Amino acid sequence: MLDKNRIAKRIAQEVQDGYYVNLGIGIPTLVANFVRDDISVEFQSENGVLGMGPFPFEGDEDADIINAGKQTITTLPGASFFDSALSFGMIRGKHVDLTILGAMEVAQNGDIANWKIPGKMVKGMGGAMDLVASAEQIIVAMMHTNRAGESKLLKQCSLPLTGVGCVKKIVTNLAVLEVTPDGFLLVERAPGVSVEEIKAATEGTLIIKGEVPEMVLD
Amino acid sequence: MIRKTVANVHEALAGVENGMTLMLGGFGLCGIPENAIAQLVALGVTDITCISNNAGVDDFGLGLLLQKRQIKKMISSYVGENDEFERQMLSGELEVELTPQGTLAEKCRAAQGGFPAFFTPAGYGTEVAEGKETREFNGKMYVLEEAYKADFAFVKAWKGDEAGNLIFKGTARNFNPAMCGAATITVAEVEELLPAGSLDPNQVHIPGIFVQRIFQGNTYEKRIEQRTVRQRD
Fold first, then answer.
1. DSSP string spanning B124-172?
2. Does the pLDDT of residue B25 top 90, yes or no?
């Protein structure tokens, strides 16, 4: 079973040379730490920066330079700033190659729910609806089950949707899965996790084709 | 040169009345019009509708207007950092319209650029699209979203000149440019107000035609919401 950092490490393998990538809050943010340093990648933050770098050194924080999580950041050579409308033009216009975000639920048809739990304080969707509606490639990073032990990979989402039919790939603490017309295709297992365990933790239709390989992480 | 300068924040906000719809720039607390917000508190206008990506924190930004119960309705994409907001929303005192962030920005830009509405894929198939026209283009579904209508837009820039030309800094740019000219009157406050001719026209982000009033802001606090740093080796 993978911890959050190992999930991020596996997802980082999906990031290719020349990609512009938008990272959501939580596990997705960690992906930046594991991208190979022999490829060129630029991270976009939807509040208006491309070419995001690491956190500033203590004393160098600038209130005018933050990411979408409102954290102080730095920029790398080649970076640019822009306004929110242009930023979402990059996203809506499919100029951003890959979006990595978290989810509360994913359905086997690619629907995603990650912004609202009825009866609880609703904080808002932020940029998530724009991102999932437009991105060519969306990878969801999440735990396979919720805190109550219930599957988050479902036949149908029970929570209000963020987007429909948009998720292509999911990396959880147990597995890598792809959304196909027939259900969740099990692509890889986390080290030491059996197909049976993944089956038990997946409410939606799980497709198993032959031997399912273990992830190669190190 | 057409002068846009006003002497101070009092003159800048002349004409703001109860019940108006106001646009306010900023993302979180970054790039918010701090002086205009303070003046709105001082004026005590009530029943206002605010179009702003966020709602500030309890004791800063739009949180200051929430404390005084001046806001009737918030139109935002994310409002998670404010306890007083949560209390007023759950008690029904405050009306809230949640809008996808890119749609919010584009509804401003549409108003600025003279489009009554536009189609976006954001929110299709979700509750955001309920009651709205949808249409298929090239095999993909889109939702019709209308431009905002607002009485005042309050924006904050880094540098500006007497002609109302604006230059923004870093990610403090965010929603500010799209809100310029998206309301009947756009009021820009700047950290540095310069004589005409001081800004290189090549470097201007927003031309003064979109700005009706500009003034030199005072004492920017620029509060940081999440101070994240790394250690020096």
1. TTSGGGTTS-EEEETTEEEEEEEPP-EEEEEEEEEEEETT--EE--GGG
2. yes
